[in-house]
Amino acid sequence: VSGDDRLPLAAALRRLEEIVRQLEGEEPDLDRALALFEEGVMVLRHAREQVQDAELRVQRVLEDAEGDLRITDLDG
Amino acid sequence: MSRRAPGDDLFDPGPPAGGEEHDRAWSVADVVRALRRAVEDAVGQIWIKGEIAELRVHQRGHWYFTLKDDAAQIRCVVWQSYARRLPGAPAVGAEVYILARPDLYEQRGELRFSAVTVLPTAAVGARQLAYLRTKEALTRDGLFDPARKRAPPAFPRAVALVTSVDGAALGDMRTVARRRWPAIRLLVVNTAVQGEPAERELVRALALVNRLPVDLCILARGGGSREDLGAFDREQVCRAVAAVRVPVISAVGHETDVSLADLVADLRAATPSAAMELALPDRRDVADRVAVLAGRLGGGLRRRTRVVAERLRGVEHRLRHRMRALVADRRDRLGALAGQLEALSPLRVLDRGYAVARDAAGRVLRQVADFPPGAVFRLRVSDGEVPARVEGTP
What we know:
heterodimer, A: two-stranded antiparallel sheet, 2 helices, B: alpha/beta, about 20% strand
């Protein structure tokens, strides 16, 4: 569920802009255009997921006597 | 209840009350209540400077004292809930600033001031000095240098909140986060933000942020008096802010109150809510941007396939045209060849009255010697063959 292993949204949007620019440009190769489009759809889906409704996660960080960190959900 | 609306005329002695006017006498409670409203409306919470005269600490922890100067004196109280946050009751004879609002104690008809804070003027001077020294040291080390300031990430994935878990700031920030970017993960590092332990706890909490998987830090505290901001002017706290490895947004004071920690932070917000607004993108904006890109992506592909289809149609057209031309050309050449062939056909010669003589084996007989007497042969004429025999000798 963690977003940490996914393409960061900033990078996703940058890539998407680039794909759209290339598709709108003069490159005549249809295979290349289709490949770009496919990639664009994937990146788009990824970007949409991140914008959709999500449950806000608020956690509290606690440090024990040994200096180890413990992260617990904070409710309310 | 009161027989007259209390107002400005309350302070106007007017004509002396006589005879039947007694019937319109005020109750004591009405007068005190009217006075209370008038005083409270006229004077809000203000800073007052004076000398502590009598001071009594009530067993429940309230402080009662008189504040005086050469010309006048007022009765003051610090309720236990405020007194316990202050370092200790001031000494009699000390010169202090108090932040207080007037209050009319109705049972006694007594005017007194409820103070929320009491600062010895000497301490204020010392604090001012310490503030300036710290500021100088931090300036020397470049902690206020604008070149140090880092921009917060456009899309943070986890944000550390250094704040009090009991404060209103946390709730405010959660509300904004839920609205703007609920996919965010907030990691709260609890710390005192005022009072004696604040400095030590802030330093510890800020150091702890560097061990968390976050890409932004918000240092937040709700409203309060300038006095309460003290910890955020401490050198060690400022250095701890500077040592945080991710950008720090501070929301410590009010718009008019800037702490040194605010100046060291990468970005300053007027309130914790405003800090969260700065920290997080608004998902509605991002959704709009994504929708526009989605439209352009589909449009881009349609345009591209249209271009290719047009090209294909062009090629097909040219191909058909060329094929037609090729076929016509071949047909013409075939016709010409057929004409030539026909002209050369031996049948045409026969038509003109010639005949071909061949022996039984089909060999063409061309010379006299090919016709010995009595030889049988066949004559090919235009419409068929005739059997023949050589009669006599040539």
